[in-house]
Amino acid sequence: MLTRVSRIPTYRFFGGGAKMQWKDEYSLGIAEIDAQHRELLSLFGRISQGIVAGASWSDLHYRVSELRQFADFHFAFEEGLMRMFGFPGVQEHTSAHRALFSKLDDMERRSVTSNVERELLQFLVTWLIQHIQADDRDYSRHIFSGATLVRSQPTSPAGAKLGT
Ligand SMILES: [Fe+2]
Ligand SMILES: [Fe+2]
């Protein structure tokens, strides 16, 4: 069961721009994951700043595509890591990852007929930090709690005689 954090960083939506900056408290202690989260935060931040500056969905299309591409890579990386260390919540966590794409798909569809930029902004400034601080922290705790790599079962080529 994944827990949700109630403490979500606050951002100034307008006037000062949507501040999405890396803080040490976001670190999970896994260098590669932290580096990917920094990149994601930067991609989220670029979109948010565009919205604050008045950009429409069509203006942001390229940045949203970039975000989708990198998020896809990051999620696959994380899901692989969770499986390697036998994290029991991998399926629920994978669903949370898919939910990001579903939300973007939904807003993109609605962007044709209505203004969804502010909704996108509010979604972006909460989703990533909440996901890192709750869901991602869950698997990192599992890994650091002494989880070991899931070992593959010994196999032998079909028809081969063991012990020869
Ligand atoms: Fe993550
Ligand atoms: Fe994740």
CATH H level, superfamily name: Hemerythrin-like
C-alpha Rg, in Å? Answer: 19 Å
Low-confidence stretches: 1-16
Give the topology string: H per helix, E per strand. Answer: HHHH
Number of helices: 4
Shape call? elongated
How many DSSP E strands? 0
- Bound compounds: fe (ii) ion
Helix content: 55-70%
Secondary structure layout plus pairing:
Blueprint: H1 31-52, H2 57-84, H3 90-110, H4 117-144
Helix pairs in contact: 1-2, 1-4, 2-3, 3-4
The structure holds fe (ii) ion (2 copies).
One fe (ii) ion (FE2) binds near residues 93, 97, 131 and 136.
Please, could you describe this protein's structure?
This protein has four helices and no strands. It is mostly helical and 164 residues long. The chain has one domain (30-144): Four Helix Bundle (Hemerythrin (Met), subunit A), CATH 1.20.120.50. Helix 2 (57-84) packs antiparallel against helix 3 (90-110) and helix 3 (90-110) packs antiparallel against helix 4 (117-144). The model is unreliable at 1-16 (pLDDT under 50). Bound molecules: fe (ii) ion (2 copies). One fe (ii) ion (FE2) is lined by residues 37, 74, 78, 132, 136. Residues 78, 93, 97, 131, 135-136 line the site of one fe (ii) ion (FE2).
